[in-house]
Amino acid sequence: MLTFLWKFVVFHFLIISCCLLDNVNPEDNLDIPAIAKYFNTKGRYEEVNPYLTEDILAVNGSILQPPSAQCQEIHLTAIIRHGTRYPTTKNIKEMQQLYNIVLHNASGEANWLREIQTQWTMWYTEDMDGRLVQKGVNDHKHLAIRLSKLFPSMISEENLRGGFIRFITSSKHRCVKSTLSFKAGLTELWAITDKEFDHVVNDTLMRFFDQCTRFVQEVDNNPSAVVEVNMFKQGPEMRSVQEKIADRLRVPYSLITHDLTEAAFYLCAYEFAIKAVNSPWCQLFDEVDAKVMEYASDLREYWKRGYGHDINSKSSCRLFHDVFRRLNKAAGENKSGQQVTEAVTIQVGHADTLLPLLTLLGFFKDSDALTSTNYASQTQRSFRTSHMLPYAANLVLVLYDCGGGDLRLQPLLNEKPVTFPGLTDPRTSMPLYEDVKEHYRELLQGCDFEAECQLFKHPAKV
């Protein structure tokens, strides 16, 4: 009788447990900070594609819907940001400053604060300075495998061994190592041990922003170019976040500057991105605070790399023309019946490489500019770097031959099809290549890097 009762209790316990598990919300995962989706360019790729948390190699081939079964890929260009990295030296110095305040000045009694003061140690060192971490290595290895599964006729062992896949990278260590990691993802996938594959360092393409004199002088090194950013930092939304942090720590308001507020946000973001830890630092922010921090970062990217100034996007003219030169070459070879000599181009750079190009192409442009005073009206904005530019962000352009000279171009951002702005077709996100070229005709005929980047005697106002 006791045995029967015991089995009855266990059976009902299992049923209840299963029911509870079925109702678990993935967003309630305590290992993921509640504010993780607001980390801007410091965010994980998995926050943009949450299904990867269950299976990092998962792909969904059904997202590619060519207008006919005849369509075959003939060329693929991927422009990819480097993987997860350490903070820069500047950020690390600010983190150390904040940590010292928390250790010596904070008098709050919350458990998370005691954890920082007694268990957490400042493990970031200045020599780390933006270098790739192991997670960043894995970001590119896994991306290589997923893209090879999504486009098996392009990113194939045959094309790799045949020299039809080309690798180009920025000279920065984190980009070179990301490129090596992408290649390793493929060679390990196909167990290639008898051959190595070269890459080319090309800062002219992948760090064009450093070489555009007008951009450097008028925007990058010009405080007046980011006046909206600085005004927002001094505004009521940001002041509220700083005061709430000071209250949580129980320190004077004067100790928590904007830079230290940003350092606290980065501590949460880096701990999660690098170590997959929901750090006690994350408790300094609620969702309202995180949205303000996200907007402050978006505002900076908007005015320094995005739509804020015309030269921001025009600095990417070289890369823009290079992409279309490759597409035209592939189209020409295909039309004449030749094998496409550069089937795949993998180009690894920075968020600062991708954002000006996305801007030049017209992606994520809102009807109103982002300013210091319209935070409340921009809650539904398209321009959100948390969605656009996580670590390992990628813009992939795939050229298809659909038969009878019908060439089509499919853009994907972070492995999701997107539509070229101004080329909306409800039937497909894969427009005719000729229509794409016509849409960007003015840029293809103009957009001269040397002319755009020349520093005039009387620079344009910013």
How would you sum up this structure, described in words?
There is one protein chain. The chain is an alpha/beta fold. 47% of the residues lie in helices and 9% in strands. Strands 3-2-4-1-5-6-7 form a seven-stranded mixed sheet. The longest helix has 21 residues, at 2-22. Mean pLDDT is 92; it is low at 1-27.
Summarize the structure.
By secondary structure, the protein is an alpha/beta fold. It has helices at residues 2-22, 45-48, 89-104, 111-118, 134-150, 157-161, 173-189, 203-206, 208-211, 213-220, 227-233, 236-249, 258-275, 287-304, 310-314, 317-335, 351-360, 385-388, 433-439, 441-445, 449-453, and strands at residues 72-81, 165-169, 200-201, 344-349, 394-401, 407-413, 416-417.
Comma- or semicolon-separated keywords:
47% helix; 21 helices; 7 strands; seven-stranded mixed sheet; 9% strand; 462 residues; disordered N terminus; globular; alpha/beta
Uncertain segments? 1-27
Q: Please bin the fraction of helical residues.
A: 40-55%
- Total E-strand runs: 7
Q: How large is the radius of gyration?
A: 25 Å
- Placed side by side, the strands forming the largest sheet appear as 3-2-4-1-5-6-7
Proportion of strand residues: 5-15%
- What is the mean predicted local confidence, pLDDT? 92
Largest sheet: 7 strands, mixed
Q: In whole angstroms, how far apart are the ends?
A: 85 Å
Shape: globular
Number of helices: 21
- Strand-pairing-aware structural class: alpha/beta
Secondary-structure element order, N to C: HHEHHHHEHEHHHHHHHHHEHHEEEHHH
